[in-house]
Specification:
single chain; alpha/beta; TIM Barrel; 2 domains; 19 helices; about 50% helix; globular
């Protein structure tokens, strides 16, 4: 009987010890949960404080021992961090959004399309047909094959309002990329649209300059821009920014006059009026041809001006137009040997474009050459050579090469053999697309 009592007593103790271990484990896990939640603020000190509040010292020691055994896995225990407020996104500026939009366009373009996007040609060269007065299947097909950067129209392409509007709209719709649709609309003598009786003539710039009222120049630009944009044009190769020598009749009434300060004011105002109507302005003919009597269409045309002469008379006018925001500057085919050191036409001269126009005058917009099919170019360079040389000089767009196909091939070959880089092509495309996509940010 005593043995049975001892057995029962021993059994009761085992049951008691088992219950105590279970209880201790329950307490241990409960405390561990509290400890893990408060590790950051309490750490191990908090654990010890919890232990000290336990009445049973032995129980506390056992608990501490078990905690120490579990401490080896503490680093593996996931820590739940308190949620944090997301940082507000930095506001993206208009310039950054434009750069992203431009980069996205260029990134999707094959090299061949990039190169063709640097040319502005006539619709007749594009379609390889006679006079173009409509844009139909042929224009659609040719623009897919040769997505040029721009087309320039003349009086022969204009019949009436409906015809002109439809032709330009279809052309813009057909081109896989945004396209420049350009015309020379200076007012007065050189005005393709108003001479076709589709808009009132604002008059000669010489008469506006002679009146000395810059607001009249701004109104002229606004008027021209208004009717050009209505028809669908987005580029006007105007104004003439040359300061004429009084004895020089070659430019004649196309210039605002012979006083640099007055012409500066007029050009600036005209640019503001034109571009305020949604049509890009083009200052011409850099570096200034007001004293040149020869015509580049007939052969080499030379100015004997020095850099100081240009800086005194001509550059202030171009600077005023640049400061007014002109999207384009057209560089002439006139040679300036006292500036460049040789008879290289200005449009092919790195010194004239990169060093002076970009460097000295700080112009960052689109540089377009004057027509490349004139004898001042064709008598000395092939179409391939002229196109590559213009891009090496810093030009962005090539206007009317003698042979468009050969000029494109020349640029492509130059990229492939390392004479030009694709990065150089992209540099010009970025300037071009910043203007073309300006209204698409929304």
């Amino acid at each position: 009987m005593a043995k049975e009592e001892l057995y029962e007593e021993e059994s009761d103790r085992k049951i008691y010890r088992h219950k105590r271990r279970v209880r201790n484990q329950i307490i241990c896990y409960a405390v561990l949960t509290v400890i893990l939640a408060g590790l950051v603020t309490g750490g191990i000190i908090g654990i010890r404080k919890v232990i000290t509040v336990l009445n049973d010292r032995k129980q506390a020691q056992e608990l501490q021992k078990q905690l120490e055994e579990l401490s080896g896995t503490e680093d593996q225990t996931p820590v739940v961090e308190a949620p944090t407020e997301p940082e507000p996104e930095a506001e993206v500026g208009e310039e950054d959004r434009m750069e992203e939009l431009v980069e996205n366009y260029i990134a999707e373009m094959p090299l061949e399309d990039k190169v063709k996007g640097l040319f502005m040609i006539t619709p007749e060269v594009l379609t390889d047909t006679g006079v173009v007065i409509r844009a139909g299947d042929t224009t659609n097909e040719k623009l897919k094959e040769n997505p040029v950067g721009g087309l320039i129209y003349a009086s022969q392409n204009i019949n009436d309002e409906a015809q002109l509007t439809e032709m330009l709209k279809n052309t813009a719709d057909f081109c896989p990329y945004p396209i420049f649709l350009a015309v020379e609309e200076e007012g007065g003598e050189v005005s393709c649209v108003s001479k076709s009786d589709l808009a009132p003539d604002v008059g000669d710039m010489a008469d506006i300059g002679g009146a000395g009222d810059p607001s009249a120049a701004q109104q002229a630009g606004s008027s021209i821009g208004g009717y050009l944009s209505t028809f669908g044009f987005n580029v006007d190769l105007a104004p003439v920014a040359d300061v004429t020598a009084e004895e020089n009749a070659r430019i004649g009434k196309r210039s605002f006059g012979s006083d640099s300060n007055m012409v500066s004011s007029m050009v600036s105002s005209f640019v503001q009026g034109l571009q305020g109507s949604g049509v890009s302005a083009c200052l011409k003919y850099f570096p200034g041809t007001g004293d040149v009597t020869e015509n580049p269409q007939d052969g080499m045309a030379v100015t004997q001006k020095s850099l100081d002469d240009f800086a005194a008379a001509d550059f202030p006018v171009y600077q005023a137009g640049i400061d007014a925001g002109a999207d384009f500057v057209m560089v002439s085919q006139v040679s300036a040997p006292n500036v460049t050191g040789d008879n290289t036409p200005a449009a092919l001269s790195e010194k004239m474009i990169s060093e002076i126009l970009r460097g000295q005058l700080g112009y960052q917009g689109i540089v377009i050459t004057d027509a490349m099919n004139v004898k001042a170019v064709t008598e000395y360079y092939t179409s391939e050579e002229a196109a590559v040389k213009a891009l090496q000089a810093g030009a962005d767009m090539i206007l009317m090469p003698e042979d468009f196909g050969a000029a494109c091939d020349g640029v492509l070959n130059a990229v492939n053999d390392g004479t030009l880089t694709e990065e150089r092509i992209n540099e010009s495309l970025k300037r071009i697309f910043r203007v073309k996509l300006r209204d698409r940010l929304e």
